[in-house]
Structure formats: C-alpha cells, structure tokens
C-alpha cells in the first residue's frame, strides 16, 4: 500500500512539473490578480477615507484620480477593482446625490485619468494640505 502511494505521489509530482506548467502558472496569475484586486480596493478605500478626512471643497476629483492611480499601479487586478468600485460609486451617487450629470462625467474623467496612469495632481486644488 505504501509503495503504491509513493508511486502515485511521485507520478503526480513528475506530471505536474513536466506536462502542466501552464496550469500552475495560470493559478499563480489568478492569485496575483486577486491580490492586486484586494490591494486596489484598499487603495480606493484609503483615498475615500482621506477625502472624507480632508473635507476640502473641490478636492473630490483629486481623490478620485489618486485612488484609481494607486489601484491601477498594482496591475490588472487593481485596475479592475478601481473600475468596478468607481463605476458603482458614480452610478449610486448620480441617482442619490442629485449633483447632476456634469459632476458625474467629471468624476468619471478623473477616475479614468488615474487608471491610465495620469498624474493625480492635475486635479489637486490649491490649498489642499500636503498630508494628502
């Protein structure tokens, strides 16, 4: 019985290392995507938290761009998380806040700018504390 178990384990190990490196590589890539997505969601939350803490008029576009920028720098998973979170937030806010389609369009522009790797400081208002 032990001999057969050893043979089976050895066969699996040899098969995995010889025939199927692509499967394990795809699993590792999937894991990296998930880690990037979680990290990207964390980046988006940090930008949101900072925006709420700063409570600075006209700074929302900066924080949108910064959160998306930080998340997208993590990789495809982070960019995906940023897009999903940004779209969900804007869809919800456009229905609830009543700030209008123009504000939503400008927010989405800042989101896309950050995700494409654009400098978030483009949207930074004068007088915003350097802490942010």
Question: How would you characterize this protein structure?
Answer:
With 132 residues, the chain is an all-alpha fold. The chain is 76% helix and 0% strand. The chain has five helices and no strands. The model has no long low-confidence stretch (mean pLDDT 88). Keywords: Acute phase, HDL, Signal. One of its GO terms (cellular component) is high-density lipoprotein particle.
Provide a quick synopsis of the model.
The chain is mainly α. The chain has helices at 2-18, 21-54, 60-72, 76-96, 101-115. The protein has 5 helices and no strands.
CATH architecture of the domain at 57-125: Orthogonal Bundle
**What share of residues is helical?**
over 70%
Taken in chain order, the helices and strands follow as HHHHH
Quickly name the level 1 CATH class of the domain at 57-125: Mainly Alpha
Organism: Chloropsis cyanopogon
Function: Major acute phase reactant. Apolipoprotein of the HDL complex.
Protein name: Serum amyloid A protein
Pfam families: SAA
Keywords:
signal, Serum amyloid A protein, mainly alpha, 132 residues, Synovial_Prolif_Regulator, 0% strand, elongated, Serum_amyloid_A, Topoisomerase I, Chain A, domain 4, 5 helices, acute phase
Helices and strands in order:
Layout: H1 2-18, H2 21-54, H3 60-72, H4 76-96, H5 101-115
Helix pairs in contact: 2-3, 2-4, 3-4, 3-5, 4-5
